[in-house]
What we know:
The structure holds 2 protein chains of 2 kinds. By secondary structure, chain A is an alpha/beta fold. Chain A has 2 domains: 5-219, Rossmann fold, CATH 3.40.50.1580; 223-283, no CATH class. Chain A contains 8 helices and 11 strands. Chain A has helices at 24-33, 64-78, 152-162, 187-196, 198-219, 223-231, 236-252, 268-283, and strands spanning 5-6, 17-21, 37-40, 47-50, 55-59, 85-93, 102-110, 116-117, 129-134, 147-149, 168-176. In chain A, strands 1, 2, 3, 4, 5, 6, 7, 8, 9, 10 and 11 form an 11-stranded mixed beta sheet that branches. In chain A, helix 1 (24-33) runs parallel beside helix 4 (187-196) and helix 2 (64-78) packs parallel to helix 3 (152-162). The radius of gyration of chain A is 23 Å and the shape is elongated. Chain B has one domain (3-331): pyruvate-formate lyase- activating enzyme, CATH 3.80.30.30. Chain B is of the alpha/beta class. Chain B has 13 helices and 18 strands. In chain B, the strands form 4 sheets. Chain B has an 8-stranded mixed beta sheet with strand order 4-5-9-10-11-13-14-18. A 5-stranded mixed beta sheet of chain B has the order 2-1-3-8-6. Chain A binds chain B through residues 106-107, 116-118, 121-122, 124, 128-131, 160-161, 164-167, 211, 214-215, 217-218, 247-252, 276, 279-280, 283-289, and chain B through 7-8, 10, 30, 32, 34-37, 41-42, 45-49, 51-53, 55-56, 58, 201-202, 205-206, 238-241, 284, 286-294.
Amino acid sequence: MKRGTKNDGLAEADLQFCWVIALRSEANPVIEAFGMKTLTGASLFPVYINPDNGHTLVISGVGSTKSAAAATYLKTLLHIKSYAAWINVGIAGYYQEPRGELYQALKVLNQDTGKANFPGLPFSKFAPGSALSTVSKREQNFSAQVLYDMEASGFCELAPLFSCNELTYVFKVVSDTPHTPASLITNKVVGELLEKNLEKLSKLVGAIGDLVKDEKRRLLIPREIIDVMENCHFTESNRHKLKQVFRKWRTAFPDRSLNEVSYPQTSAKEFITKLEQELLNEAKDWKLR
Amino acid sequence: MEVEVIETVYVEEEIIDHSVTKRVLKSFPRAVVIEISRYQEIFNKRHQNFRLQKKNPGLILAKKHDNFVLPVPSGFGMDAQKNFYFSHMYNCIYDCRYCFLQGMYSSAHNVLFVNYDDFFKSISDTIVRHAGSSLTFFSGYDCDSLAFEKVSGFAAHAIDFFSKHPSVELELRTKSIVTSPLMKRNPVKNCIVAFSLSPQKIAGILDQKAPNVGRRIKALKQLAKAGWSVGLRFDPLIYCNDWENMYSELIEDVMDDLDPSNLHSVSHGPLRFPKKMYKQIASLHPDNRLFSFPMEKKGGIISYGAEIEELMSNRIQTELKKYTTRSKVFRCTV
Lengths: 289, 334
């Protein structure tokens, strides 16, 4: 593993995939697969990052609270945008074999509080779906036909607030079952279980990436409008209005440049009015596409 | 969207053994079934992204506990003295850009209430309460009445029920071409199958995942020929260049070879949204030209404005006059 990316200069990094993983042995294969390096200066939790491909990862430690805290730490530390995907991956107990099978958790139940979350869109093409219970002590009875872990519910409480429910994902690899007790699981085994599923995880990242792109496009504030707002004084209300009107104008006139719109550089309000007027002028011959 | 692609079915624990639940689950043998307490725990969750969820929504099977039948807002529907609606489903498998459901619910999952009998009991009570009144019951207010019929079988039950109450009307509103459940039985005169229609050029852009308009017209004519009462719903009217010709051609296509005696009614209505709903829907699709149009805001409603609305309404009525009597044409205002 390569070391040493500084937090400086990461403000421009377009981080799109935020991994929250409990154990270092679970995290290592993901860190390697996506070429992440240690972020120096991250004091509370170990953080890894690859600004080039938009992946970042935090190692939370075991437990639901730590998972939520680590996700929040990562969000705050790197100013993660609201279109980024949040992914919790790790090992889990399951009521049946085979060990090593990758599942997507479609319902995450906090066993202690009874509160449920329903993260993500299903990607059954790559990983079958299952319900998951987050427990505070390692499950040994496997009384229900669900996955058992110790982190996902905390993660699912917080991550949707950072982006949305459909960009929050929980994937688990079966590590222990009634026939394969947890006592047999070593760090080496954990790493191997994750490694074996890296191909599937990469496909899932590809599918999730399409959603991220879609959401990023939806939330985009075009550069040209940022320039206008920097060059002309807008009240907060007018900034909001300008973003809305400009988006409409851009949709109506995809090939035009803002430079063609003449307006008094000193009046934000008149600029908005000008854009609105151009939309009105176009209304008579409005095209839907 | 094909209903076969539903990957996840969420089922309320209370109705896991309900006969409708069992039948519906048989339609999705490969879907993952997740048990839930109440549908609201997933459907009303905060921080859901409707637009992303609509790419692959799940199906929620639930039990409805109250508000089975509700009065429709005035200005909606035909001239019955009392109009009511019921929603055995929330949301729709189609993805029409102008649909108010996008702004109505925070979730794009489809909810199917499986306790059909409770709906019919409530409808029955409503009929008794309004004995002597002319009543119409609308299905398809919060969903499409027939799009999910192959799975739900609800419309078939509804038609059975209303065939025993010939003095009240049932409207099934749809864009679906799933007519086989109706075609294989004798027409029920007080059941109106009302098709939502737009010119194909408009529908091709806005009515995503819905059958194309030509197939809808074919389906409605097939039903009419078999003796069913059909309705035509030009609602919402979409404004764009050449709309006059497009709507004229659409009306001509629909009316051609349609026996007027089987035409129950025609209604049309403008594109309009409550302000909050418009804002919500437009934010989902900020790059869609439907929402780039310089709309007017009046009385908390966003619309094309009175001038365009009148222009379109007058034109539609003029076209319709060529084919049907004025008494069958209604203008919806809500």
